[in-house]
């Protein structure tokens, strides 16, 4: 019992001076905390250390809380921070000083800054925004977005779409209109979106104008991999080998290596009407079939492992194989068709 008391006393003697020392130190909140819109859907948070804050042998960091639109908390040694966020409903954040000394921590009060939502009448912003990217044969990325006008948007409303990717911003020049001549669709045949990047964000911003109402702007963030429409698998080949149907293909046109895709194999028995969809991660598929039947085969692809799933590719051109499709020019006593997927 005496030994335990001595240990507790020793701990108290070691810790207490640090606590007393920190209690004598006042931790001041940062000053001049401001929020500045630095780009589409991007905010610069900046502040300065309090001139009253003691430095000495202390380590000073800053605790930052994003309150809206999406909660996030992090700490930093810097006195500024960039945040990407949709701003059509405003933005608010806290920041406070963290002071560390010999493993102990003290905090200041929070200071708050806020960006008000941009002006605009309710229900005039676009709705149901949807975007798709596509890797083209020219090794660039296209972008296609569609939306619906706001329920209270006047018939004379003109919507304008901008996208931002990293530091580059561009306005749409190619719109499709609805029956009231309002822009409801936009196409970029070429963009500054870098193919092959992982989880980079594409910012879409749509504002508008009308003689009869202030049109509220709208923003949305998209993961570039999640909205990519994957290309069709290439050089699909189907043949019979004894009682097995064998299919082979090459990866879609993409900057990702061949191990980055999953495939669906769609087989229809034209004799019985039975349909079968099988998933595979390789570039070939083998299946025991009734060789007296006739079959149609299609393949499609999506991202796997290297990036989040995008939109499934279109199905490859339909290939037929079976009794009624025997082709004597093949090397094996089989039927054989090849189809080269259209590249777009």
Provide a descriptive summary of the structure in words:
It holds the Pfam family IL6Ra-bind. Keywords: Glycoprotein, Membrane, Receptor, Signal, Transmembrane, Transmembrane helix. It comes from Gallus gallus. The protein is mainly β and about 350 residues long. The protein folds into three domains: about 80 residues, Immunoglobulin-like, CATH 2.60.40.10; about 100 residues, Immunoglobulin-like (Sandwich); about 90 residues, Immunoglobulins (Immunoglobulin-like). Strands 3, 4, 6, 7 and 8 form a five-stranded antiparallel beta sheet that branches. A hairpin with a 5-residue loop joins strand 9 and strand 10. The longest helix is centred in the first third of the chain and has 22 residues. The N and C termini lie far apart (about 80 Å).
Explain briefly what this protein structure is.
The chain is mostly beta strands. The protein contains 1 helix and 24 strands.
List keywords for this structure.
single chain, Immunoglobulin-like, signal, disordered N terminus, cytokine receptor activity, FN3_sf, TypeI_recpt_CBD, 344 residues
């Amino acid at each position: 019992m005496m030994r335990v008391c001595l240990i507790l006393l020793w701990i108290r003697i070691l810790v207490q001076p640090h606590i007393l020392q920190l209690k004598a130190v006042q931790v001041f909140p940062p000053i001049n905390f401001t929020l500045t819109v630095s780009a589409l859907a991007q905010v610069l948070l900046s502040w300065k250390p309090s001139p009253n804050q003691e430095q000495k042998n202390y380590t000073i960091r800053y605790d930052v809380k994003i309150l809206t639109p999406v909660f996030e908390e992090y700490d930093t040694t810097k006195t500024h921070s960039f945040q990407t966020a949709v701003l059509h409903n405003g933005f608010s954040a806290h920041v406070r000083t963290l002071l560390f000394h010999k493993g102990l921590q003290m905090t200041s009060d929070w200071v708050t800054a806020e960006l008000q939502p941009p002006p605009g009448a309710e229900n005039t912003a676009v709705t149901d925004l949807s975007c798709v990217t596509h890797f083209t044969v020219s090794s660039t990325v296209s972008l296609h977005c569609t939306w619906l006008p706001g329920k209270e948007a006047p018939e004379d409303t003109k919507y304008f779409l901008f996208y931002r990717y990293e530091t580059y911003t561009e306005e749409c020049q190619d719109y499709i209109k609805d029956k009231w001549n309002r822009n409801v669709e936009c196409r970029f045949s070429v963009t500054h979106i870098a193919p092959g990047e992982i989880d980079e964000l594409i910012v879409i911003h749509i504002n508008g104008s009308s003689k009869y109402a202030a049109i509220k702007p709208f923003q949305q963030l998209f993961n570039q991999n999640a909205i990519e429409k994957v290309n069709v698998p290439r050089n699909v080949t189907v043949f019979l080998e004894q009682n097995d149907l064998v299919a082979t293909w090459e990866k879609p046109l993409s900057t990702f290596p061949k191990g980055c895709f999953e495939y669906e194999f769609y087989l229809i028995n034209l004799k019985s009407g039975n349909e079968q969809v099988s998933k595979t991660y390789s570039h070939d598929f083998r299946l025991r079939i009734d060789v007296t039947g006739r079959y149609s085969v299609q393949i499609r692809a999506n991202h796997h492992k290297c990036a989040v799933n995008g939109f499934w590719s279109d199905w490859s051109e339909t290939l037929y194989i079976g009794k009624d499709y025997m082709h004597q020019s093949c090397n094996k006593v089989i039927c054989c068709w090849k189809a080269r997927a259209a590249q777009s």
